[in-house]
Amino acid sequence: MTGLNLRDRDAEVEDPAADLARGRALRAQTPRRALAELGSCGRSATEILLEQNLGRVPDLVGLRMARMLVSPLHFFRGAAAVMAADLAAGPSSNIDVVSCGDAHLSNFGVFASPDRALVFDLNDFDEAAQAPAEWDLKRLVTSVILAARQRQLPEPTARDIAESTAAAYRRALAAVLQMSVLDRFYLRAALTDRPELGADGLAEVTRRTIERARRRTSERAFAKLTEPDAAGTPRFRESPPLTRHVPLADEAALLAAVAEYTASVPVDVRVLLSHFRVTDIAMRVVGVGSVGTRCYLAVLVDARGTPLILQIKQANRSVLQDYGGRVQPQSLQSAIAAHGQGRRVVDGQRILQAVSDLLLGTVRIDGDDFYLRQFHDMKGSVNIDELDATGLGAYGRDCAAVLARAHAQSANASVFHGYFGGGGKAIDAVVSWCFRYADKTVADFDQLTEAARAGAVEVADHPLLG
């Protein structure tokens, strides 16, 4: 995102004291207590979701709705557009940082860094763009509340966990901003260096998450998802609707796109990929909110039969733009015009993550934008249903600290720190908003459920909904 988050005056040099003062002054425009006010965008959640479905693969729309109707938390995961619209309808700090746009609990996790160490960080950037810093925080805290309710924890306990999550963000942001710009850039949560990530009720869950992540490799996915054809060439197993082959014309376009991607990556990655050849491509359903967007897997093998699986995922406009109404910098708009929405996703990931997949790249296919990355490169997410109250609180705080580190890469982070302050006013306002929004999410979930029962919303009935 070249030029993203430039300061108001290009010649201005970062001045932490001046930034803090500027942030405090902005409280006059939007008092921190105003962050508790829940606005209404004037549209129902169901209406927004059905509008999103119009641009998706028609025969996967029912699967998307089915996955969202598993629980209010699943609904929330798929309703980033709804929340962006509701956030835009209420007061905000208007202090923009490079934002994840979908910073709920399940979009944090572990994955392998280029040096093969396991790190803990944000891991989803489909909605990445500039937006007010508290929008990401509100999405995280609301997900914590919904998770606490899903675990049937008492409301006072849920409030304690929500407040501790918001407070952890504030503390971490203050701590990271005390570092030099270079130190905060290199800061990362490597599990081997951060044993506290496994403390406070998280130890056993963290161990299981790490074990699952270490098993999620291209080799394991290769063994699970492919089989040799009569000539011994690896092909994806058909498993509709989750995995299925595409028409030959689409496959030809995808093969050409992989070749174009290979020619555009840095030279070291290009040399690495030159050892591999594509043997098959198939459509693959992933996630909750992403269901119905075009997502493919390409299996590649080298001369020894070593597999590499790449994910080719459609990149649409960020909900922060389309539903949150956030106008993006001209530099980002120019980059998107030249390289597509995949550039926004990839650049957002590189800014917000401490370390990123070296194989990240972008491509356009028949007018649609895509980005590419490794599939199952030791990626793992914490199973929320495995967490007790203590573990959920610890995990919420860990996610908040990672989010603060990500926001601290932006020039306006110190301004937001000045605005947010060191007391409890902003935290109380954010948590109050999030409890109201958790209630709204349940109401939206019930509304979608009723629409599905009435036949107004298509919902798939398939045994592979997990």
From TrEMBL:
Pfam families, alphabetized: DUF2252
Classification via InterPro entries: DUF2252 (IPR018721)
Official protein name in the record: DUF2252 domain-containing protein
